[in-house]
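Data availability (excerpt). All sequences and predicted token strings are deposited with the supplementary files. A representative entry, Putative Zn-dependent peptidase, is shown inline so that the format can be inspected without opening the archive.
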Amino acid sequence: MKFLLISLLAVLFALPVFAGGKPVMDNGVRVIEIKRPYTNTMSIVFFVKGGTIRETEKNNGIGDLFTSSWVKSSELLKQVEFYGGGVSASVSSDFMEVSFAIPTEKFDKLIGYYSAMISKPEIDPEVFKREKALLKESIIAAEDNPDSRAYKNFQKATYGAHPYGLPGEGTLESVESLTEKALKAYGKEMLTGSNITLAVAGNYTEDQMNRIRAIFSALPRGKAYKPDCTGSVILKDEQVREKDKNSKQAKLYIGYTAPDAAASDYPALKVVTDLLGGGMSSRYFNELRKDKGYAYSVYAAYASRLCSSRFMSYIGLNSENVPDALKSLDRINKTFYETLTDEELEAAKNYMLGRLLTDSQTNSKQAWYACFFENVGLGSAYFDNYVETLRKITKEDVRRAAKIFEGPKTVFILN
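Structure token line:
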């Protein structure tokens, strides 16, 4: 593992993977170039500020329905698979993300279709009907799944009225109300230069880059979107219980207010997440599953957000063990650093770095990380700094990050 980590770091830092200019076009589009001439492919990735955070209870799910209908209505989708490429779009909590990956030699054959998809987004009526029906079916299926319903209701409980508490796929009521007209208006609002960060990674020529620039420079500037983070923190302890006669086990979630992705403690809390619930060597696994035999599943998660996030502790277990598991998780969270060893910390960091560096080797991922870090305010080249910061995390950094566990928490129990 150590040899792999050193090798990956050597490759990463030997190459100017995040080199290139980051000019801002007249319409506000931010452009990041990542030259990787040793590849035979290229990826065009762009982020649009505002994912489900832009949505309301009334139009919840519009991002999900728009992205699937938009891509599947495009001629590009019909053409790109024939040439060995791919195109996709999705909506996360904070962004709409669009990715287009192709063999560089097929650029001329496909760029026209890509241009049409971006500059003149279409929603085919038949595709819209089909995707809307499929989305409603998936919502019904998720509601019948105790795991999906528990997670959705935990998010609602911990975020309250803030849009982070909305389900990405929407509700039956909100999706039923969505129309083609609404989707077209949504696309027009989203595809504006002032909210787009574009990254091109791979093997491409200056002429190809100029043609890509021309596509995005033609977009209207639009109004810059700024997320409203009001109400994204937990103000008081709260416990929510729900009954589920179909569930064979209890689902226990504990949520603590966690810093946004631009905060100084963000990297350290990522390490804390791995230490506590990142796998079979984690504290949760060893005490709650290995020693006590409680857990069917146990883990920790910490999502990257523009507003306040949540550190989430989860365990699936028999109902009679919930009270002790709740006390145990809260105790582990508040005291684990007291017995944290240097070896345990190094093992967690090495595992994280190996996974991160392996994941980041593709053109698409290089472009994705550049867009992400640019949008959270850390700069497109921050990935290298992030890797180095993770390597230097100390026990004191961990102790400081763990102070979030002293604050109020949301407890959600489904059984």
